[in-house]
Amino acid sequence: MRQGIETLVVVGVGLIGGSFALALKRAGLVGRVIGVDRSADNLRRALELGVVDEISDDVCAAAARADVLLLATPVGQMAAILAAVAGHLRPGTLVTDVGSTKGNVAAIMRQGLPDHLACCLPAHPIAGSELSGASAAQYGLYENRDVVLTPLAETDPATIERLSSLWQACGARVAVLDAEEHDRIFAAVSHLPHLLAFSYVNLVAGQDNAARCLDFAATGFRDFTRIAGSSPEMWRDVALANRQALLAELLGFRGELDQLIALLASEDGPGLAERFSAARQVRTDWHQKFLRK
């Protein structure tokens, strides 16, 4: 297909991979989408909903037909997948992913596809929710959203141009970052918030009056804990993959908690107000900028 692709293979047909397929379908840039997934029920649902045109339980056979192979699985599954498909990919097949850590994906690609690296390009769409599975896929998920590409040193510039054009056709803004810089940034603004949300819910659930607390939980609890509804398997893999950057962020957050404890212990109202006001201003400025995107 001119400017598009004939066959897209999505391994892991959920919100992110499924929405990519739907957006390309709407743009008329993909001829056929093949879905591969560990869950037969999820694959059947993807086919019923038109997210994919064909389903397969054989990742090697599907990969052999791919013009683009999209890995939309938890990062912990990627090494085994690439090792399996390495001898089946056609020359020129673009291999990419949608994971939120990139340094480890680059290493996995180098290990699993050493002879195919010119066509390998890690990517991270900054979109999503706590929803999962094929039923969560939606056409407009990537409109006016950022997608970060982190090319390998070996990635061909034509591969970058090709994948950029596909993401742009989905309505996304494309940025290019070094993998290490990407992982530091997202440890701070994505991975740490998820860990804090999981930990906070566990803290409340572990209290003697947990049921009573939850009876009265409302919008504040809902808003702060929304991302604690995300996939435990995926976030386990993210935490381990980006552990060094995350440890640095957790230590920094512990320092913030120590300051808060000290201010409360000393009944320092002005100090608390100063910290809250500074945070409020940063959040307000960010939100205004976010709305203008």
Description:
There is one protein chain. With 293 residues, the protein is an alpha/beta fold. Helix 4 packs parallel to helix 5 and helix 7 crosses helix 11. The chain is globular and about 65 Å long.
Apparent shape: globular
Rg on CA atoms, Å = 21 Å
Distance between the termini: 31 Å
Q: How helix-rich are the residues, as a percent range?
A: 40-55%
Low-pLDDT segments: none
Multimeric status of the protein: single chain
The helix/strand class is: alpha/beta
Order of helices and strands: EHEHEHEHEHEEEHEHHHHHH
Give the beta-strand count.
9
Order of adjacent strands in the largest pleated sheet: 3-2-1-4-5-6
- Largest sheet properties: 6 strands, parallel
